[in-house]
Amino acid sequence: MKIAVCVKQVPDTPAKRMNRQTNRLDRSGEGALNPFDTQAVEEALRLKEAEGPGEVVLVSMGPPTAGDAMRKALAMGADRAILITDEAAAGSDLVATSRALAAALERESPDLVLFGQYAADSEGAVLWAAVAERLRRPMISQVAELTVDNGSVTGRRQTEFGYDVIRAPLPAVVAVSDAINEPRYPSLKGIMGAKRKPQDTLSLGDLGLEAAQAGEQGSRTTVLALHDPPPRGESRTIEDDGGAADEIVEFLAEKRLL
Ligand SMILES: Cc1cc2nc3c(=O)[nH]c(=O)nc-3n(C[C@H](O)[C@H](O)[C@H](O)COP(=O)(O)OP(=O)(O)OC[C@H]3O[C@@H](n4cnc5c(N)ncnc54)[C@H](O)[C@@H]3O)c2cc1C
Question: Domains in the chain, please, with CATH?
Answer without folding.
Answer: 2-213 (3.40.50.620)
